Amino acid sequence: MQLPDIIKNAVEALTKLPGVGEKTAFRMVLSMTRWRGSELQQVGEALIHLQDLSFCKECGVFCNDNICDICSSENRQTERSLCVVESVSDLMAIERSGQFKGLYHILGGVLNPLLGVGPDELRLNDLEERIKRREIAEIILAVNPSVEGDATCAYIRSLIDESVRVERIGFGVPMGGSLEYLDSMTITKALENRKKF
To answer: Within this chain, do residues 81 and 164 fall inside the same structural domain, yes or no?
Structure first.
């Protein structure tokens, strides 16, 4: 059966979303064919307005103004701690935990020469400038554990003055995890990040 181009184009557009394959996209489109025109228009307009998103000039997270709520908070500005993350979703995960009360800096990825991501493609110049301007005393590198993440952390450490304390978040065994089901890299990281009990 030959489907109309409108259906095919909608399915193709939805498969660009992470975790959405052709079958899932097709089911979504079939569901949307039963929506009223006003509902489709509402979703379409909401998606079109994503191109108008503003980003915080300080940390790089989405915001309504030039500076986000976190960076403009007086309580946070007095903290001299900066948490460096790869992405907006990483920032949101840490923020949900409620354990970090300082400022954030979103890199926008990690160094990956194979994919053409070098230091100029990340927000490293902004990071250096913020550390000096805000007189940051402590950097927490909350970058995912991978070869690229490790290389990125090492590169950042080389950029930062020795007077600034730099730490990396711990990795290893998840709460409720069982050692017998973990891969060797996770166990290696858990052993490296052990602390006195």
So the answer is: yes
Query: Quick one: 182 and 86 in the same domain?
Result: yes
pTM, rounded to two decimals: 0.81
Strands 54-55 and 62-63: antiparallel
Cβ proximity of 82 and 140 under 8 Å: yes
Q: Which residue has the tokens 């100029």?
A: 120
Angle at 97 between CA 93 and CA 101, to 5 degrees: 100
HSE (side-chain half, CA atoms, 13 Å) at 113: 2
Spell out the residues 6+ positions from residue 160 whose beta carbon is closer than 8 angstroms to its own: 128, 131, 139, 166
Q: In terms of domains, do 163 and 81 share one?
A: yes
Which amino acid is it at 103? L
Which token pair is 38? 């006003």
CATH for 105: 3.40.1360.10
- 74-117 pLDDT per residue, tens: 888 788 999 999 999 999 999 998 889 999 999 999 999 889 99
Going by pLDDT thresholds of 50, 70 and 90, the confidence category of residue 24 is: very high
Domain range enclosing 18: 5-52
Does residue 22 lie within any of the structural domains?
A: yes
Do residues 157 and 109 both lie within one domain?
A: yes
